[in-house]
Specification:
This protein has 9 helices and 13 strands. It folds into 2 domains: 126 residues, Rossmann fold (3-Layer(aba) Sandwich), CATH 3.40.50.10740; 136 residues, Glucose Oxidase, domain 1. The longest helix is centred in the N-terminal third of the chain and has 14 residues. With 301 residues, it is an alpha/beta fold. Strand 4, helix 4 and strand 5 form a beta-alpha-beta unit. Helix 7 runs parallel beside helix 9. The strands form 2 sheets. A 7-stranded mixed β-sheet has the order 6-10-9-8-7-12-13. A 6-stranded mixed β-sheet has the order 2-1-3-4-5-11, sandwiched between helices.
Length: 301
């Protein structure tokens, strides 16, 4: 994939600073042929541009037959506002690799649901200049084929809460965004899926609320396995009673009949592994080892 034409779009928020965007774009240009990139000047509040302009940019990137991948500028917020505006027939005719994470979870899951795209939850443009070698190696491994071990370049090991083996499509991403899709036509069928979740700066009671939503919606019963990435709570008030995240995870996931693991280096902080949303994976959590392996590529050889 090095040297391939790519498009850069901003389906959610604009970059926090022009410098991080320009530096990331320059880094991408060293590896890929950037055909179309988002330009500042059209911002609308916390959105990178009005809804119609953002979905139009996405459509133009999708329909260009030369574009091999679409890279998102950053997350933030805004992808949920686009889902009912997307031309799904166009997307079905022109499957393209969509790269991003965080708010891009909405696009990854919606494209999987509607047209069975496999997306790559990987670095956004504003991270490319600062990304560490392990993060970039994880991304590039997908461009070369199918990594044998999704956590091979990272020191962190997976820790099982419950043991077992599960195989199925890898679905999930940011917990807040995923929970907002439930009950809409853009949420996938989680039956038999390996569910991956991460969250940033959310207090334990808010994570509890979102996991309760998944529980009551049947998502946690439908899943074949669960992988917990990085969760951060932000600063908590020491004068207010709270549970810890470990308590919350144990309450909802600690007695599941399928494998549940923690410690995947995946979330809002670097280093971070890239994950194939919608692609088949196998999760094995035994007494001897815990592994997460991919079973198909996300790009054509």
């Amino acid at each position: 994939m090095p040297g391939a034409p790519i498009a850069v779009v901003a389906p959610a928020s604009a970059p926090r600073t022009a410098a991080t965007y320009e530096q990331g774009l320059a880094q991408l240009t060293e590896t890929y042929e950037v055909r179309r990139a988002w330009r500042p000047g059209s911002e609308r509040g916390y959105l990178s541009a009005p809804d119609a302009d953002r979905v139009d940019a996405l459509h133009r990137a999708i329909e260009d037959p030369d574009i091999r991948a679409i890279f998102c500028v950053r997350g933030g917020y805004g992808c949920l506002r686009l889902l009912h505006r997307i031309d799904w027939a166009l997307a079905r005719r022109h499957p393209t690799l969509l790269v991003g994470y965080s708010d891009v979870t909405a696009l990854h899951l919606a494209f999987y649901t509607k047209v069975r795209w496999t997306g790559l939850s990987g670095p956004v443009v504003t991270e490319w200049a600062e990304a560490d070698p392990a993060t970039l190696d994880s991304f590039q491994a997908w461009c070369r084929g199918t990594p044998s071990d999704l956590t091979g370049n990272f020191d962190a090991g997976l820790t099982p809460l419950t043991l077992g083996t599960a195989s199925g499509p890898l679905l999930g991403g940011n917990l807040s965004v995923l929970s907002r899709l439930i009950g809409t036509p853009f949420a996938p069928d989680f039956e038999g899926a390996v569910l991956v979740l991460e969250e940033v700066a959310e207090a334990p009671y808010r994570v509890d609320r979102m996991l309760a939503h998944l529980e009551h919606a049947g998502v946690l019963d439908a899943a074949a396995g669960v992988i917990l990435g990085t969760f951060t709570t932000g600063e908590l008030d020491p004068d207010k009673p709270t549970l810890f995240l470990d308590d919350v995870f144990d309450d909802y996931l600690g007695t599941r009949s399928y494998p549940v693991v923690r410690g995947l280096p995946y979330g809002h902080h670097l280093p971070r592994c890239s994950l194939p949303i919608g692609a088949p994976v196998q999760l094995r959590a035994t007494g001897e080892e815990t592994t997460l392996t991919a079973q198909s590529p996300v790009v054509d050889s």
